[in-house]
């Protein structure tokens, strides 16, 4: 059951950032600095099998626990979720739960407007499984650890790009993400892709959008192949907004950080106004 206690309306919105597959909370360094400078408390989580949680196998229940812990560790008051790719799908699913906290006032979901219930995610999962199996076989035969690229499978999967440094050459070796917490740029093997896509394949992000009771902002790079159902997602939202950032691809927060931050500021203001 939801609590009857609503968050205080004069409290500044705290922000939880959720990364995509095969990356970690360090991808949000630019955005963490931006929202903190504006007076918001903020934290970037590491999902299971990523970063500081590298020893946990990915599951959606485990991802929900990570988000629950992040919210519990923030000061009392309203909370917004900001997720990229897997993090966006996870945030939408978390927001759709009937027992999601009343502190949630909005979700900004980036790079996740292709419904994973359809065939593309199953295809990506099968490709990732093939790549993971090839890496395992090579390790057994040669004794060498290999980190194969998805391009060896002759399929471009925009959502699965490796972690890259944002413009400006920021140091991603260890980033302060919250008091007494750090995010680590651990680069998981391809097994985690199979696990993540397996957990996504049976879920509909459209259904999660319909179930969410809070405003949703969808933010996509214009060159992102995951945009294919953005209008369906927008139409399904109770309170929805869509922003397409020119020139950016899937990793929109790192490829166009200044523009993304301006959009993020507007989204947070919209969440606070509607709350």
From TrEMBL:
Pfam families: Abhydrolase_6 (PF12697). Gene3D superfamilies: alpha/beta hydrolase (3.40.50.1820). It comes from the Bacteria. Transmembrane segments: none annotated. Residues 15-261 form the AB hydrolase-1 domain. PANTHER family: ALPHA_BETA-HYDROLASES SUPERFAMILY PROTEIN, HYDROLASE. This is AB hydrolase-1 domain-containing protein. The lineage of its organism: Bacteria, Bacillati, Actinomycetota, Actinomycetes, Micrococcales.
């Amino acid at each position: 059951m939801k609590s009857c206690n609503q968050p205080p309306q004069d409290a500044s919105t705290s922000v939880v950032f959720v990364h995509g597959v095969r990356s970690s909370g360090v991808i949000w360094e630019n955005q963490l600095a931006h929202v903190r400078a504006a007076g918001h408390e903020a934290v970037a989580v590491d999902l299971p099998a990523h970063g500081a949680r590298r020893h946990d196998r990915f599951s959606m229940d485990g991802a929900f626990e990570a988000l629950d812990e992040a919210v519990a560790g923030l000061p009392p008051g309203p909370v917004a979720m900001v997720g990229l790719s897997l993090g966006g799908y996870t945030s939408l699913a978390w927001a759709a739960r009937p027992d999601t906290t009343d502190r949630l006032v909005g979700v900004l979901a980036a790079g996740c407007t292709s419904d994973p219930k359809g065939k593309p995610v199953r295809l990506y999962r099968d490709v990732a499984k093939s790549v993971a199996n090839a890496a395992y076989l090579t390790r057994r035969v040669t004794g060498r650890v290999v980190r194969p690229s998805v391009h060896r499978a002759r399929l471009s999967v925009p959502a699965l790009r490796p972690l890259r440094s944002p413009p400006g050459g920021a140091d991603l070796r260890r980033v302060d993400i919250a008091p007494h917490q750090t995010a680590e740029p651990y680069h998981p093997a391809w097994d985690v892709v199979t696990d993540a896509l397996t957990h996504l394949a049976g879920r509909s992000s459209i259904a999660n959008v319909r179930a969410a009771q809070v405003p949703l902002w969808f933010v996509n790079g214009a060159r992102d192949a995951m945009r294919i159902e953005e209008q369906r997602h927008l139409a399904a939202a109770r309170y929805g907004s869509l922003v397409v950032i020119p020139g950016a691809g899937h990793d929109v927060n790192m490829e166009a950080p200044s523009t993304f931050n301006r959009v993020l500021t507007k989204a947070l203001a919209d969440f606070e106004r509607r709350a």
